[in-house]
Each structure stands twice: as structure tokens, then as C-alpha cells.
Design brief:
Blueprint (H helix, E strand, L loop, with lengths): L1 H22 L4 E9 L2 E8 L2 H10 L1
Length: 59
């Protein structure tokens, strides 16, 4: 059962990563996504304020 939970969590993070990348038009570089039971932590680099706004909107 534990492996099923990990697979679902991994799939959710992969889906979130793809949606985030699509929503930011690939303007955020070096993205790391860390999922926790009650929160998701995103880190990345942006060259413009517009990219930061897209990241906030995408999350």
C-alpha cells in the first residue's frame, strides 16, 4: 500500500510540475517542487517581474 501512495504523490507532483511549467510559459528556470502533506514548496529563478507574476498565478 505504501508504494501506491508514493506513486499517487509522485504522479500528482509530475502533473503539478507540467501545469506550472505550461502556465509560466517556461520563463521560470531551475524549478524545484517539494510536496508535503499540507503544502507545496516551489523554488525557481525568474529574470523578470512578469515571470514572477505568472508563477504566482500558475500556483
Amino acid at each position: 500500500m505504501h508504494s501506491d501512495s508514493w506513486s499517487l504523490d509522485n504522479q500528482w507532483l509530475n502533473d503539478f510540475s507540467e501545469a506550472f511549467t505550461r502556465g509560466t510559459h517556461r520563463l521560470i528556470r531551475r524549478i524545484t517542487i517539494d510536496g508535503h502533506p499540507n503544502r507545496v514548496v516551489l523554488e525557481g529563478c525568474a529574470r523578470s517581474y512578469y515571470a514572477v507574476q505568472l508563477a504566482i498565478h500558475a500556483t
